[in-house]
Amino acid sequence: MTTIVVILCVVITLLAVLASSSIRVLREYERAVVFRLGRLVDLKGPGLVLLIPAIDRMERVSLRTVTLKIPVQEVITHDNVPAKVTAVAYFRVVDADRAIVEVEDFLAATLQIAQTTLRSILGKADLDALLGERERLNEDLQKVIDQQTEPWGVKVTTVEIKDVEIPANMQRAIARQAEAERERRAKIINAEAEFQASAKLVEAADVISRNPTTLQLRYLQTLSAMGGENNSTVVFPMPLDLVRPFLTAAKDAAAADDGDERVRFEAQANLAAMIPPAGPEARAPHHARN
To answer: Dihedrals φ, ψ of 80, to 5°?
Structure first.
């Protein structure tokens, strides 16, 4: 009796082991790639999957999107600038059979393809494109990597460049370039502002010139603006019509002085011409008369 009980326990244990090895439960996002005696059979899952013990071998494949972090890659751009680039790729398995049959490890293979493609694509781009045209580079990376992984049943949906690290001296050069560009824009804006202001001043001068009273009112507005700043400077505008007679009189007096000086100089020159020289030639005739 004891022997029969032991035998029954052993049989039940074996059946339980066989049942556990032949029954699989797959989640909604999982699929089972089953090999029967080494040959591929139909894809199974999700739900309950029955296997033949010691005959069937199952590979579980997840169909969810995988986030693949691409480690730091040292890249030399097209304009010979070294840079360290990190990126991330998103992919998922669309054909579980090919993902198991066509490649040994589709995750590692996708990672290697992503690293190689990243160095290749970014090595053809300039530093300005790497910093300012990331969307285009992301699209190029996604297309190239997806073409490489399509035979494996892997679909690469997105590739994003996360960070670009460049040397410190290049960062300073870029900062100087940006500063110079800002200064150029500021000078252009100032020049345009001065041009517009000068045009408006010309228009204002045309309007003011039509009525002299407008100029007096403008003087009063300027005095009011200066008086509001709490300073001790007093500015009194004087019309040019009041100053012009004094300027004319001063000019005439200066011209008269110049004319008197010229007449005096001519008189002195004539007097000198009339006086004979006092040398030996002038005394010689006097001795002859004696």
So the answer is: 60, 45
Local structure of 4: helix, strand or coil: helix
pLDDT, one tens digit per residue, over 56-65 is 888 999 999 9
Dump pLDDT digits (tens) for 130-166.
888 899 999 999 999 999 999 999 999 999 998 888 8
Enter the pTM of the model.
0.60
- Cβ–Cβ under 8 Å, residues 164 and 131: yes
8 A C-beta contact, residue 68 and residue 91: yes
CB environment 161-196: b (16+ within 10 A), e (fewer): beebebeeeeeeeeeeeeeeeeeeeeeeeeeeeeee
Query: The tokens of 6 are what?
Result: 């032991």
Peptide bond into 239 cis (omega under 30): no
Residue 279 has pLDDT above 60, yes or no: no
